[in-house]
Amino acid sequence: IAERYLSFQTGMATTELEIRRLERGVAKARGEAVSVATDMYKNGSVEELEAMLSSSSLADIQQRIEYTRTSQSITTSTFTALEENRRELEGKLADLDDARLAAARSKERLGELAETIESKLAGQRQEIDELNEALALARQRRARRERIEDRRAAAAALEAAETSDRPSADFLGPLGAGLMAGAPVAGNDAVVAAALSQLGKPYQWAADGPETFDCSGLTMWAWAHAGVSLPHNSGMQYAGTPRVSQGEWEPGDLLFYGSPIHHVSMYIGNGKMVEAPYTGAFVRIESPYRSDYVGAGRPG
């Protein structure tokens, strides 16, 4: 419809140009016709008689009569052209009126279509807003469920850690047997006992107990029970303790990992270590033999 409307507009412009051309032609023909009519009124219709009376010979008479008839033919042609131009102008004016009417109808239809489209768009925008609201609500509900599930999973993991991560005396070796039996401990044994007492506590970066720990926070907290102060940083603990070869590890020794150093644990004997590993995990007992091991240190 929009294309038809533009086509009507273009056709109307072309027709208006033709009308202006015809109007100029009609005006010119009308001027010529008025001039001829004026001459006819003034001179009457006795041209041929005057030609015969004023001629000096038969040949002159014939020549003047032919000239008069030619003038009359031109006059007839002038009026004929005027009538043709008038009729063509009237036809073009009628065409212009038709084109204007068709253009007006197309413009009206365009307005109706625009209103319909705008109404539908408004409805679709409302539907989109409602869908977005429903989606946001669904996301909120899902996030709420995930938080609840995370809390439940954390609680279950903590409970499991508290029950399953408690090592047996056989698992820990002679030192473990004494600890499990409640025997008094001192020195490095007190340090190991302090670290093992935190099994199942959750890891938290930069925490040093008593409810949560990171790796250097656990070793710092445990060695404090023996009166030894350590910095809360694995790299600084490495720099502040003398080196111990792997074959000379003793319970309480610190084991360091990573390059640069980013993790520290405590050797507890029997080929095991206690550590606070990473976010989402809990204080646990693991094998100390890892590919990123860099060395051991002995506080004291």
Structural commentary:
The chain has helices at residues 2-43, 47-54, 58-164, 169-172, 174-180, 188-196, 215-224, 234-239, and strands at residues 243-244, 254-257, 263-269, 272-275, 284-286, 293-297. It is rod-shaped. It has a 6-stranded antiparallel beta sheet with strand order 1-6-2-3-4-5. Helix 1 packs antiparallel against helix 3 (58-164), helix 2 runs antiparallel to helix 3 and helix 6 crosses helix 7. The longest helix has 107 residues, at 58-164. It is built from 8 helices and 6 strands, in the order H-H-H-H-H-H-H-H-E-E-E-E-E-E. It has 2 domains: 2-141; 169-297, Alpha-Beta Complex (endopeptidase fold (from Nostoc punctiforme)), CATH 3.90.1720. By secondary structure, it is of the alpha+beta class.
Layout of helices and strands:
Blueprint: H1 2-43, H2 47-54, H3 58-164, H4 169-172, H5 174-180, H6 188-196, H7 215-224, H8 234-239, E1 243-244, E2 254-257, E3 263-269, E4 272-275, E5 284-286, E6 293-297
Antiparallel strand pairs: 1-6, 2-3, 2-6, 3-4, 4-5
Helix pairs in contact: 1-3, 2-3, 6-7
